[in-house]
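Tokenised fold entry reproduced for everyone:
>
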Amino acid sequence: MSALSALPFLKPVHLRSPRSAPGGQRRHTLPASEFRCLSPEDAVSVFEIEREAFISVSGDCPLHLDEIRHFLNLCPELSLGWFEEGRLVAFIIGSLWDQERLSQAALTLHKPQGSAVHIHVLAVHRTFRQQGKGSILMWRYLQYLRCLPFARRALLMCEDFLVPFYQKCGFEALGPCEVTVGDLAFVEMQHPVRGHAFMRRNSGC
């Protein structure tokens, strides 16, 4: 068993018991709800959700398909997908960053020696929105980061209207972000990963 699959926050969550086939025999079913790191094979599903979520709002995506593949090849352990019966319904993609604040280069680079996890994108499939899935996935992701010895904090940039959502997730605003995309300006936000009560001996981390 890999170290990642042993982490408690990535274990499948069985929300209902398996259905039975005719004759009373159980047939194999996928976990009703499962959290796992993404792989390059998930890139197309990721991009389809992201494209629908962001293009209608901002006219562009935080990550294009080649960039999604890029990060899922370089640092799949910094991604997290939520699957319902094998179907991707929400995801987060991150990479490592080695400076105090984000810069334009952070949009495309993964810095393996960094201790800050740059969260590039969080998106939920349109049919699963308004159900609290984004908050739940972010909570799981932050708990997962606490199990990674190199992670010290999480960074992200968002538009003004998303600041309250991330504040509810425990992020604090650091002020205007240096990064711009076209005419869009962003607020940079931070969440500490180390030094929390979750890091107890019985946490499984």
Notes: The radius of gyration is 18 Å.
